[in-house]
Design a protein that fits this description.
With 322 residues, the chain is of the alpha/beta class. It has a single domain, classed as 3-Layer(aba) Sandwich (Rossmann fold). α3 crosses α10. The protein is globular, with a radius of gyration of 19 Å.
């Protein structure tokens, strides 16, 4: 990492001199005019890209569009670090599915999760498929998506409900849902393959960097405290172990495998580097159901998690210049 930081500093300084100044973060919308030598970069993805929660910074769009991109999410962090080299268009959106990247408009929900949370700006107008931000002039695409197509939020909700009913004992969620997981993973793979095909068609010269999901659940689920809302609330330890080995790790594998079939795409692994920083660890890079004081976070990366993602994505982006 030290060598990468040195390389980043040297390249960033040279680019800033060439461009005259570091370009500020770009909001969703049309491609801006790039400064001399800059690469056009489009950031696509779901809430693990957009940021969404308050622990990942402040929402910066005015007016809000309901996608809730935050100023400490990894696209914005990378933009501040590499703004002289890459011109960012960030159209990531909380709750996006793979289809919302490819060809299906999305109706953003902001932070409207009744009865837990009411968003005063809800409802929001639909936003177009994120792939529409990609064009023939795009040089780099980063995309982090798949969890909502798999239904990870549904798993969390159902597992917490069943864990409470079973007083924290056994694997009630695994018992109820395991049979459907292979079909869900198959759907993820099919949708991901189609998304990458569409992105290649829209941006033939672009290098695509697919971004995996970080470590959310620790290797030892017994370190998680049943009933702790800042962790996984009432999901049993047995179900947490199952979610890690049979749901989340296979999701990352499906994304990596799909990426491997595409010659101009590379997979950015966040899982290994984030181990030891799960929801249940002392220094967590992913928040649990709630943060303190009581704020809804629904198992999303915080600023530390986005900083780690930014480090690895920056290295991959710099490699596209070689």
């Amino acid at each position: 990492m030290a060598r990468f930081r040195t390389r980043l500093a040297l390249l960033g300084s040279a680019a800033a001199l060439a461009a005259g100044a570091v370009v500020p973060a770009q909001f969703a919308g049309a491609h801006p005019a790039a400064a001399a030598g800059q690469q056009q970069w489009v950031a696509l993805g779901d809430s693990y890209t957009a940021g969404v929660i308050r622990a990942a910074g402040d929402t910066f769009e005015v007016p809000r569009d309901g996608c809730d991109r935050t100023d400490q999410s990894y696209p914005q962090v990378v933009d501040r670090d590499l703004g002289g080299l890459f011109e960012l268009t960030n159209v990531s959106c909380g709750a996006a599915t793979i289809a919302n990247i490819t060809d299906t408009p999305q109706s953003p929900i902001g932070r409207h999760l009744p009865p837990i949370s009411e968003d005063p700006d809800y409802p929001f107008p639909a936003v177009p498929p994120q792939s529409e931000a990609v064009g023939a002039d795009t040089n780099v695409i980063t995309v982090g998506v798949g969890g909502n197509t798999l239904g990870f939020a549904e798993f969390l909700t159902k597992c917490a409900e069943l864990g409470a009913e079973h007083a924290g004992k056994g694997t009630p969620c695994k018992d109820a849902l395991a049979a459907g997981v292979p079909d869900r993973l198959k759907t993820v793979r099919e949708h991901y393959d189609r998304m990458l095909t569409v992105l290649h068609e829209r941006a033939p010269k672009a290098k695509i960097l697919t971004v995996g999901y970080p470590t959310v659940i620790p290797q030892d689920a017994s370190t998680c405290t049943f009933g702790d809302l800042t962790q996984f609330a009432t999901i049993t330890q047995g179900d947490l172990a199952w979610l890690r080995t049979d749901v989340l790790e296979p999701l990352n594998k499906a994304i990596a495998d799909s990426t491997g079939t595409q010659g101009a795409a590379s997979f950015v692994d966040l899982y290994a580097s984030s181990q030891g920083h799960s929801v249940c660890d002392d220094t967590k890079w992913v928040e649990g159901f709630l943060t303190l004081p009581a704020q809804l976070s629904v198992v999303h990366p915080n600023v530390l998690g986005h900083r780690n993602a930014a480090d690895h994505i920056e290295e991959a982006m710099l490699n596209t210049l070689s």
